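Lab notes, practical 5.
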Amino acid sequence: MKRMKKFMFLVLMIQSVFVFAQTKTVVTMYGEKVTINPYVNNGLTANNGYIQLGGALTQPSVLTTTSAFTLALKGLQTGAAADNLVVTDANGVLKTITKETLSNGFAKGSLLSTNATIAITGGTNKLFDGDAIIDIAPGASNTTLTTNSAGKVVWSASLPWILDGNNNGAVRSIGTNDNFDLPIETNSIERMRITSGGKVGIGTAVPTNNLEINGANGTATGLKLPTGASAGKVLTSDIDGNAVWQSGAIQLQTILASDGGAKTYMGAATAWTLVDCFTSVVADDAKSIYGPAFGWNVGSQQYVVARDGKYRISLNVYFLQGGVTAGQNWRVAIILNNVNAHVTSLMAGMPFISVTTSSNTEATTSYMSGIATLKAGDVLNVKSSNFSNGSTGVSIFGGIGHTVLTIESL
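Output from the prediction step:
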């Protein structure tokens, strides 16, 4: 009984927090009289003998929760777009604001403190929808909003390259606005460069001409131009300097003069010897166009053919009067692919292109010219023989106006 009395007393004490003014006396089932307040306020309502939540607050009220004793509201209704938002002020007092107030706060930056950041974690739903606008502090002129290596949104002076083309609506430039080159790479390797001086290099980063194509070890240096009307055309320039295709081929001309003075070459009918006096190169187009492996080699005294075709070969030899038996059979010949070996037979089967003959009774000039079909890599040189007496040899006089060899492509 005492415990029941204490319990009833505790209940009445809790209720008395909200009771004031008039009081009434009631009798319990045990015959005890208890005085109670029949009225409630400050958020409570008396209804048919029940004290219920609901009603106006009559004084500031604080409901304190802890991590162990939390407050939950269940059964809340779904809100509508026009509903207000519940917020707390600096003192923790609950208040409502409209959604427009919240949007304006974001737009004006009033909801964020100085140097504040917003962390956005990726998901499947949209962060903003409709006509929402993100207002970011202005950057410097001509900068682009992008992300850095840490994933942060920053302003950058580096403009991005938009793949699949750009719709500019006006003329735009690509390049550098200061004194720097413009390199172009593929697969992380530089393929082409436009220097700050306007020179274009392909395969080289330091072009010295307006257009320069270069390749390692002489490979990949070709320049393919639109085809001509048919095969065998030559690219040349017209009267205005424009590149055009023309009929005909580039002529290769080699002119060789001999050393000045008298020279004697000891060679018999079965042992022709090399005439090695052509040391003065007047012109050699084959070497200048096709490289040092072709044309005339002064050291080996031989001509290497650069390309297939027909060639005109001319040889002028100035023979000296030898003072020996008249009527000796001197011969000077242009030999094909015998290189520097001695000819070991008579006329039959020898690789002659030409033969110049003369007696030795008096000084005389002998000249021959002919056309031969040659292949790239063929070798020509000049050899001599005294068919009558190999021990006396052949005497010639060298010099630009005396003994001359000319090789021309046709």
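Observations recorded by the TA: The longest helix spans residues 2-15. The longest strand covers residues 309-319.
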